[in-house]
Amino acid sequence: MLEAFIAANRDDIIARARARVDSRTQPKASGIELRNGVPVFLDQLCRSLHLAQSTKVVDHEDLTASASQHGQDLLGLGLTVDQVVREYGDVCQVITQLAMDQNARIDADEFQTLNLCLDEAIANAVTEYTRQRDRQTANADTERLGVLAHEMRNLLNTAVLSYGIIKDGQVSVSGSTGLLLGRSLSGLRDLLDRSLADVRLDAGIMHTGRISVTDLVEELGVSAQLEARSRAINFEVSSGERGVMIDGDRQILVAAVSNLLQNAFKFTPANGNVSLRARVAVDRVFFEVEDECGGLPGDPEKLFRAFEQQGADRSGVGLGLSICRKAAKANGGEVYARNLPDKGCVFTLDLPRVSAPD
Questions:
Q1: pLDDT per residue as tens digits for the range 210-266
Q2: Is 168 exposed, middle or buried (0-12, 13-18, 19+ CB in 10 A)?
Q3: What is the DSSP string of 103-126?
Q4: Residue 184: strand, helix, or coil
Q5: How far is the C-alpha of 328 from the C-alpha of 221, rounded, in Å?
Q6: What pLDDT score does 177 carry?
Q7: First to last CA, the chain
Q8: Mean pLDDT, all residues of the chain
Q9: Which of 52, 188, 29 is nearest to 119 (CA)?
């Protein structure tokens, strides 16, 4: 029986299937897929075969339940929908080839059952996988909208209260209340800019063109200097050599670097130092924002997760660095952080350099 053959050769099938998966170029196999994905696929396939062979007829209801649970497991393992489909095919082909190599006596009806189980399992696993993924996406979008509205309300409420106090003549507009009003309005502007950039990134709306690195840095430096002054922070700008160009969406890149600067100002104490510099290599351009936050409290990579906040200051929605990473990737680059223990950190937006136009 095919089920008995699979049980007797389980380890060999898993080893061959892993080798087959690992040799793929697209989609590239993940570590989770190789460690857990293949055995899970094989076990689910055996359950399907057992259900089918017990009565010589595929029990669609039980098979659907089994494959649907498997689809949920695959989503939890971090596999993509493309990997879901291909793994079933890889395991099935390995079983077929191994049976031929060993001259195993498996009749045509059992192979037909195997193919039927394969079709049913793929369809139901993918359906459930997609449903669960869409649910996760919807929940994440709802959460993001909720925290965005909450943050906007806080900033707007602070601005309204500050304006009321100034309007009543209780304090001077040049005092700390006026400063609070300015920060609240700046926060609203930055929040809207970041949200618009995020919407465009999710929608795939890009307006790319050649951008002068020095012009971009100088533009960013003007608004950042005002923010630094309001927080009593020393701010330095180094725009690098002239004539260096990048290719990208200017609005999205401005939003990305601005967010890095806002975080630097947010976590650097008064009289501290923040810098923005452009560093140029042969084929890359690095926009570096260095601060004096005291050092990162944990793994820098965790900071790029949506809603992740590791500092003591929990103001903000925790989406900025996640959006920065999306912005970098959309423009062919990457963003990463380097910790400076007991001093601060450096966030780098790494983009490809292009040749200047004639």
A1: 999 999 999 888 878 878 887 889 999 998 888 899 998 888 888 889 889 988 998
A2: exposed
A3: T----HHHHHHHHHHHHHHHHHHH
A4: helix
A5: 19
A6: 76
A7: 72
A8: 75
A9: 52
Cβ density class 125-160: b for 16+ within 10 Å, e for less: bbebbeebbeeeeeeeeeebeebbeebbeebeebbe
**What is the rounded distance in angstroms from the CA atom of residue 314 to the CA atom of residue 308?**
10
**Burial of 207 per CB tally in 10 Å (0-12, 13-18, 19+):** exposed
pLDDT, tens only, 96-139? 888 888 887 777 777 776 776 666 666 666 666 666 666 666 56
Tokens 């697209």, residue located: 26
Backbone CA torsion sign across 49, 50, 55, 58: negative
What whole-number distance in Å separates Cα of residue 228 and Cα of residue 268?
10
Residue 118 CA to its chain's centroid (Å): 32
With 60 as the cut, is the pLDDT of residue 315 above it?
no
Indicate if the pLDDT at residue 292 is higher than 90.
yes
Residue type at 258?
S
Backbone angles phi, psi at 173, to 5 degrees: -65, -20
Instruction: Find the range with the poorest average confidence among 11-15, 131-135, 268-272.
Output: 131-135
Determine the Cα angle at 248 with ends 242 and 251, to 5°. Answer: 95
Tell me the C-alpha distance between 170 and 335, whole Å.
46
Say which amino acid occupies 272: G
3-state secondary structure of 234: strand
User: CA-to-CA distance for 34 and 53, rounded, in angstroms?
Assistant: 28
Residue 154 one-letter amino acid: N
Look up the pTM and report it. 0.51
